[in-house]
Specification:
Blueprint: H1 4-23, E1 31-34, H2 38-52, E2 58-61, H3 64-73, E3 86-91, E4 95-96, E5 102-103, H4 110-118, E6 120-128, E7 141-145, H5 150-158, E8 163-166, E9 182-187, H6 194-202, E10 207-210, E11 212-213, E12 219-224, E13 227-232
Parallel strand pairs: 1-2, 1-3, 3-6, 6-12
Antiparallel strand pairs: 4-5, 5-11, 7-9, 7-10, 8-9, 12-13
Helix pairs in contact: 1-2, 2-3
């Protein structure tokens, strides 16, 4: 049996392989969406290496954490107000199905991530091999909500068949997103029809956004066995 530390090292290597491959897709002069989370962080670091070597790009970060990292690494940044069209967006995912539908949001930044992905000419997803699934749903689906309505929304989503919990910090206070909202983590086990569920969630008053990314990714780069598997929609 593989030791947990070895499994962690393998996952980390897969993340790096996928992230490095994605960083090579960025061209001179690109406006680049900078994703959030551990895999996307590797992509930011590899892009920073290319910037130090002379690549001219401008990044748009999807979270405060990514913004701070990019600034520390010397990647020039801009905003959606200044550049409402993005050339390529590189981000991770918590689950990827065969149609490249995604669950995102384990790190809590999926609202900004979805906005950036929606205005990108190319949305490239990077992940370790364990993120590939036949059907979405084992990973809890995050739903960003207005705190005022969270108890009502929780009841509504439970009526759709999910186990729902409020995301909290270790010390007990509710997790607060960059936009000041709360997150409900919703475990469905299986989501056989992601578009139908996405439509139902969007129809609930007080839901700001959900972590289903339907038909948005152009390509997924999956690290596995030291190489990159490329999937296209």
């Amino acid at each position: 049996m593989t030791e947990p530390s070895n499994e962690s090292a393998i996952r980390d290597q897969e993340k790096q392989v996928a992230a490095r491959a994605a960083a090579q897709l960025v061209d001179e002069g690109d406006i680049v969406g900078l994703g959030s989370g551990s895999t996307a962080e590797y992509a930011v670091r590899f892009l920073a290496e290319r910037v130090r070597e002379g690549l001219k790009i401008i990044g748009i970060p999807t979270s405060q954490q990514t913004k701070h990292l990019a600034e520390q690494l010397g990647i020039p940044l801009t905003t959606l107000e200044e550049h409402p069209q993005i050339d390529i967006d590189i981000d991770g995912a918590d689950e990827i199905d065969p149609q490249l539908n995604l669950i995102k949001g384990g790190g809590g930044a999926f609202l900004r991530e979805k906005i950036v992905a929606s205005v990108s000419r190319r949305f490239v997803v990077i992940a370790e091999s364990s993120k590939q699934v036949k059907i979405l749903g084992k990973f809890p689906l995050p739903v960003e909500v207005i705190p005022f309505a969270q108890s009502l929304i929780k009841q509504h989503i439970e009526g759709l068949g999910a186990k729902v919990s409020l995301r909290s910090y270790a010390y007990g206070n509710p997790y607060v997103t960059d936009e000041g909202h709360h997150i409900l983590d919703c475990t469905f086990s299986k989501i056989p029809d992601p578009p139908a569920l996405a439509e139902k969630l969007c129809g609930i008053p007080g839901v700001v956004e959900h972590g289903l990314f339907i038909g948005m990714a152009e390509m997924a780069l999956i690290g596995k066995d030291g190489r990159v598997i490329q999937l296209r929609r």
